[in-house]
Amino acid sequence: MRTNDAQMLVLSALVNGPLHGYAVSTAIERMTGTRLGRGSLSSALARLHGKGLIEYLDAEGRRRPMRLTPAGREMLQCEIESLAHTAGRMFETVVPDRAAYQDRLAATDLARSYKQAALDALAVQSGHVVLDLGCGPGADLETLARGAGPTGVVIGIDSDPQMVRRAQARAARLARAGVLGADVHALPLPSSSADRVLTDRLLQHVADLPRALAEVRRVLRPGGRLVMAEPDWDSLAVDHPDLEVSRAYTRHITDRIVRNAVVGRQLPRLALQAGFAVTSVAPATSVFRDVHAADQVLGLQRNTERAVAADYLTDRQAGSWLDHLAQGPFFAAVTLYIVTAEKPSQI
Ligand SMILES: C[S@@+](CC[C@H](N)C(=O)[O-])C[C@H]1O[C@@H](n2cnc3c(N)ncnc32)[C@H](O)[C@@H]1O
After folding, report:
1. Ligand 1 centroid to 200 CA: how many Å?
2. Which of 56, 110, 139, 271 is in Cβ range 3.0-4.6 Å of 106 for a Cys bridge?
3. pLDDT of the residue at 2
4. Do the Cβ atoms of 299 and 291 come closer than 8 Å?
């Protein structure tokens, strides 16, 4: 047997001892910020009494205080444990290790699918020198090395020492692959030395997009190809009955969490301005219908807490937002763009 919301609120209001009806109503208002209608309160009281979950105390006068019965206390305990279990399963409460997070993400079906599209666009051939800029823990090094074959070379580059260590351990198992700790704004590589360059969700983080793209152009050989897979976080659509809450959540991500949050849509313009020819633009939309899977990518609870701290959501909005997401049905989608660009051959 499960209680409905109003009955649950009454049970919670009585947890610390007996109360009169009006005091139950006040306690609920204090807990939730809203007043339970008189009809809902009376009907909840009648049902709880009928189920033997609350009882009235003998008292002088018309208004008798009520309290939880042992069965009512047990019911409340069960509901709380069930909610705690659901919340714990739904949302991650700790920030995951950065490299492990990227590895876990790369292994999802959604990531595999857009990564395959990006690798197809890159069209690595045997003998190519391939750069994976912002390679993270090196999830793509093996596939790139397979494409470049025994005469090609794959170089992963990342500015985060933890990522570099993880990627170097991976590259050590491959014949002709290496990983350097370096910044994409100043690559430690000769001009015109690479046939192919991949950026997979790197450019959303860089401090100076035109400078980073100019550096990529410098190291690519004329006729060489750059494939960029970058999200547009403004396209993040999470279903919630209150559209403003959903918009506020997305606005917080684009304003505060990701440095170049809408780089996906800007890539064709930025690439043209950097002197590339843009040969194709393909969208890859990830659709999530499972809140747990979405949370692993989007960090729903963590980012909701940050949105509250930054005044994008109130505590109440955040509570109703997370409750709704946990209860489902859940829907979220975000689009990433795969943009292929070429450095024109010199005339
Ligand atoms: C979202 S992760 C993507 C990792 C990897 N490309 C993948 O698909 O799994 C972005 C990576 O870019 C790296 N990064 C961010 N800014 C950088 C910069 N200026 N130069 C080099 N790497 C950078 C981060 O350290 C991080 O590992």
Report:
1. 8
2. 139
3. 43
4. no
- Our mutation pick for probing the ligand 1 site, out of 101, 115, 159, 168, counting the most ligand atoms within 8 A of Cβ, is 159
- Using N-to-C axis directions, what is the helix angle for 291-298 and 70-90, rounded to 10°? 50
| Alpha carbon of 190 to ligand 1 centroid (Å) | 21
Q: Return d(Cα 74, Cα 89) in angstroms, integer.
A: 23
Q: Residue 83's pLDDT is what?
A: 56
Question: Ligand 1 site: residues with CB under 6 angstroms?
Answer: 102, 106, 134-136, 139, 157-160, 163, 183-185, 200-202, 205-206
Q: Which residue ranges of the chain lie beneath pLDDT 70? A: 1-4, 60-62, 78-96, 347
- Tell me the CA–centroid distance for residue 102 and ligand 1, in Å: 10
Structural domains of the chain sorted by starting position, each given as residue range(s) with its CATH number in brackets: 5-90 (1.10.10.10), 98-342 (3.40.50.150)
> 209, 167, 31: which is closest to 8 by C-alpha?
31
Please tell me the predicted confidence (pLDDT) of residue 1: 33
pLDDT at 82: 55
> Which pLDDT score is estimated for 78?
65
